[in-house]
Amino acid sequence: MGFEGPGGLYADLASGSVPAYSFIAPNQCNDQHGRGNAGPFCNYDPNDNGTQAGLNPALMRLGDVAVRRIVTAIKDSPVWKQGQNAIVVLWDEDDYSVSPITNNVLLIVDTNYGSHGVQSGTFYTHFSLLKSIEGGLGLPCLNHACDSDVNVMSDLFGNTYPTLKSNERLHDPAEGRTIRH
After folding, report:
1. 36: pLDDT strictly greater than 70
2. What residue spans define the domains of the chain?
């Protein structure tokens, strides 16, 4: 489903008709990756040499505009004002770091509750985000999210859901199930 028109993301947000969890991924022209056949504003980066000079500035601009438009639509939605909501923006490209820690990516968590402007000193991985989402939604762990070295991002989400240590169990009597973290 697209973002525009009836039944699109923006119409759903305006009406407040959204699920409890949504994964929103822009198309390749708006996610800063580009496409080879889409013209100068959406072309691939001219050079992948790890510097700003190698990047297509039009792609960066399109991506920035897309994120701003999506976040604004979410925050203008009636559902943003209800309950506890979070917007997570995650880049999937590295920052060209070298050893010992490579492939650092930016992650932003914006909530409609709790503290704002929090910066974490904790090392997180993609599995940390997965484990945090699973914990917030009361779901069991997938793949390596249950590994003992995976940290929950409770400091970024305002400590509003149970902060569980690795392999700790959360029992939800209403559901009659135990969730391992």
Report:
1. no
2. 1-82
